[in-house]
Amino acid sequence: MKVLWVTNTMFPDLAKDLGLKPPVVGGWMYGLARDLANSGKVKLYVATARDAKLDESREINGITYFLLKGNSPINKYDKTLEPKWKKIIDLVNPDVVHIHGSEYAHGLSLINACPPLKYVISIQGLVSICARYYLAGLGVKDIIWNTTLKDFLKRSTLWHETKEFYERGKKIEVNYLKKVNHIIGRTQWDHDHAKIVNPDCTYHFCNESLRDSFYDSEVWEPKPVSQPPTIFLSQASRPLKGLHKVLEAVHLLKDLHPNIQLRIAGGNIFDAKGLKQRLKMSSYGNYIRKKVKKYDLWNRITFTGPLNEKEMVTEYLNCHMFICPSSIENSPNSLGEAQILGVPVISSFVGGVADMVTHNQTGLLYRFEEVEMLAREIHQILTDPDLVLRLSKQGKEAAMIRHDRKTNLNQLISIYSNCTTK
């Protein structure tokens, strides 16, 4: 069976072959692609569109890659891609086209160029729904008083970012879901939203596999009392990722846990050490900077910079807990990564998270707005060793089943077979 993947991310093998820096996102796809290519049942092709210098095609480790040079940002429809897709389809003649994610438009140009093909689309997030929660409780004054000159001039204020999510949802995502007959998801949340948009679609359930290092790693262990309490977050660049709520919770715990630390993957969003950094700061970064100053948390926050998967493993293993504080999520892989290592997790009760976390068994859940509940749950993990052991053990057991690579591979191949017959 020949399967063409359409992805939003250039795979590391192709990036390295082209002399480019490998991406640190989308890692869950790479192992699955290798498993498919080695299954003996699928000949895999992987294509994406980027602001590249030239169209490229390479075969590396049994996978054929296509890189298409687009003329528009990937969140805008690019009609120049249509003839390029036709050439690839003529060359590959795929049995199934699997589009990963509904957020960007290059796969939509393929559907419009070659409508008779058998398509299936995987839901990652749903930007049309995430737009509702993008501001994550920030009010009008919060936005106005924290808008930076850069964001004003570039029309990239928080209101512009929210509008961009709405527009992508309306013009791209909804079109995807209406045009395809087969949709892959993994939560009740994405199932219900997909079925509202396209009641006639065939919905296929398939969990995601994680990055290689998370299956090979040592297991998390409870930390000694002498180690400063450490919370790890995997993202914080946008309001919907909820950093501001974690800061409020940490502020409530300063007296109980005077050494508490917060480590955040990614670049420092409120770095203002020089004029250049201040000019680059986003509106949300400015808002966070003021909140950190208000709560006197300067010495409690560390941004790690971009992390590869092995560095992410190290951060998980060294922390006391992982928190997913988002205002909306489908099924965040960061939560699964923490669980499969045995890290105690706390998450806001939003979107599809309830399909990953059973409260007080495989993790702790709280309402996104209720920072007091979040603070209390952080305190529980730091003071209740029996709870920590239970969450660690049962979270890992659940994640090992959910993210079993062989099970997920076989399920995906079965879905492809189903797509070719219906």
UniProtKB/TrEMBL annotation:
Entry GO MF terms: glycosyltransferase activity
Pfam families given in the database record: Glycos_transf_1 (PF00534)
Residue span, Glycosyl transferase family domain: 225-397
Keywords annotated in UniProt: Transferase
Protein name in UniProt: Glycosyltransferase
Natural source organism: Flagellimonas sediminis
